[in-house]
Design goal:
Blueprint lengths: L1 H36 L1 E6 L3 H8 L1 H4 L4 E6 L2 H13 L7 E4 L3 H4 L7 E2 L8 H4 L20 E3 L3 E2 L3 E4 L11 H4 L8 E4 L6 H24 L2 E4 L2 H10 L4 E3 L3 H9 L6 E4 L6 E4 L4 E5 L5 H11 L2 H11 L23 E2 L7 H14 L4
Amino acid sequence: MRFAAQLSVLTAAFFLEIHGASAAEDWNAIVAAAEREGSVNVHGGPGSAQAQALTSFKSAYPKIEVKFLGAAGRDSIPVIMRERAAGVYQWDVYVGGTPSTLQTLKPAGAFAPLRPAIDWPEITADNLWFGGFDGGWMDNEKSTTFGFALTMNPVVAVNWEFVSPDELKTFADILNPRFADKIVFDDPRRPGQGQVNAQAILVNFGSDYLRDLFSKQKIVYSGNARQAAEWLVRGRYPISIAPASDQILPFRQQGLGQKIAVFNGDMKTAIAGPGFGTVSLMSNAPHPNAARVYLRWLLSSAGQAAWSENTKSNSRRLDVPKPQPDLYPSSGQTYVDPQSEKQIPAQIQAEALAKEFIKAP
């Protein structure tokens, strides 16, 4: 019996060793094929921080060039759709925000199944991710689009140097005429953070409030996040709806805007999402092996550390430092992800209200 037990252990060890060796050989073959392809074409979000984060891959795989384009989905998605309609397939990996991709690229068949390309234990283990690995899927089928980042959405930011706390305590106060021409809002008529935050306001306060905000308050709508951040810092518009934290941070590092803080007021439902931190594998990818290598790197601890360090955005991976710990959900906290596919109906309603009631150009 002792011999049988020893034989069983040796046999298990043998198969484990063979399986591990086989997996390593398979991976080495994929990397070799990727290096022969020579490059990977990656779409990412706009800005130098995104570019630095998503091209850090070259440090790990110097023989594979990253051909990178950073752009907002509202600008790049129409181009990609036209290209694919013409039979042109330029992209391997799409990193960006949702739900715009889930409303356009996904139904057009532009995404390939992602799970087979990232099915490695150091990627898919539940204990590596906040809410488990499957908690990151953005599409209903849990197949094509994975959210690797997670940050609580600052729906409103206020520069308290120019606003009295006695005058602004609840979201109803934002409608007060005293704040006319003191609010900047990332344009919610277009896909982006403004639309996501309009959706968050809708979820918390209903359609009547959102309608009144658009139609009765005097608001400046901007499509330039950098400009809106400067207006907030300078006090030109000391209330910012859908503020871009990454654009405010450089000012704060210079000692400016030190009294800017997130305003939650009387919001009851927490809002958290990946921002530009979702990834999909494009169908008909021109560099399929390089795409797989890139995806494994991006979702690894090293790739997520590069993402977090450069973008100052929180990763869902639990083994990566959080640059914004105050905007990270606590364990067991309930929140709504406005970027997930199941929240698209609320997003459509918020967009419709914005287009109907905002009269500004």
